[in-house]
Design goal:
With about 240 residues, the chain is of the alpha+beta class. The protein is built from four helices and 13 strands. A six-stranded antiparallel β-sheet has the order 3-2-8-9-13-12. A five-stranded antiparallel β-sheet has the order 1-6-7-5-4, with helices on both faces. Strands 10-11 form a two-stranded antiparallel sheet.
Length: about 240
């Protein structure tokens, strides 16, 4: 039996809805690979399994004395425990789960549920690679909703990585305030030219002005990655309890 939890991806600016379906048929070999590794060396809880070309997030949950006539309820219990184990181990939410194996041991009345999952950062990064976007969005998972802010900055405009990181963080807070508080945001870019030793150095600075009805805290850095056009994309998130 295959129990699939669907995750839907809501675009907050109203451009549309993207569906993040469960793992598809072309990943059959990957699923079989994970199952073989688990069968050769079983474990309990969440674990990262390194493959030849990728890493897989796997969670094994074992439950005792489950009623045989409550399949749906048993699956939900296992899924909830899998989500908790993944959050603790991977230090970020997992937003997509698929149960790939159900192992029943009748001798000791135990049932093991083996899940594949995808972390929030991996999900957003994969969505971005398929179709690049910037801005704030909402990711809706089975138990929680997550606000995400995606900011892409041009590396050449910043003389220090720390400065670029701070700008990304401020922009993430701006986007959160805009979504939750309806704040008015204005950004002003200034090019300042300083002449030194008969050469011209162009320094880019950014002044961010904000007027809002309140302050949104709890925005956490999730991930960043470089793109081919010498830019860096940052991902921030905040958990929104349903």
């Amino acid at each position: 039996m295959k129990f699939i939890v669907l995750l839907y991806f809501i675009i907050a600016n109203g451009l549309g809805t993207l569906n993040a379906q469960s793992y598809n048929d072309d990943k059959t070999s990957m699923v079989n690979y994970v199952k073989r590794l688990y069968n050769s060396s079983s474990f309990e809880g969440a674990k990262i399994i390194e493959g030849d070309d990728a890493k897989y997030y796997v969670v094994a949950i074992t439950l005792n004395n489950l009623p045989q006539d409550s399949t749906e309820k048993n699956n939900k219990i296992a899924l909830t425990k899998a989500q908790e184990a993944a959050q603790i181990t991977f230090a970020e939410p997992c937003v997509k789960f698929e149960m790939i194996s159900l192992i029943e041991n009748s001798s000791d009345h135990k049932t093991t549920f083996l899940f594949l999952c995808e972390t929030l950062s991996e999900f957003v990064k994969n969505a971005y690679i398929k179709k690049p976007f910037d801005g704030s969005k909402i990711v809706a998972a089975p138990n929680n909703k997550y606000f995400i802010a995606v900011i892409t900055l041009d590396n050449s405009k910043y003389t220090a990585v720390s400065s670029r990181d701070k700008v990304a963080q401020m922009k993430a807070k701006q986007q959160a305030n805009t979504m939750f508080n309806g704040s008015t945001i204005s950004s002003e870019s200034i090019l300042r030219t300083d002449e030194k030793d008969k050469s011209t150095e162009v320094i880019s600075s950014e002044i961010i002005k904000e007027q809002s009805m309140g302050f949104i805290d709890g925005i956490e850095f999730l991930n960043s990655f470089e793109t081919l056009d010498n830019k860096t994309t940052y991902i921030y998130y905040k958990t929104i309890i349903k």
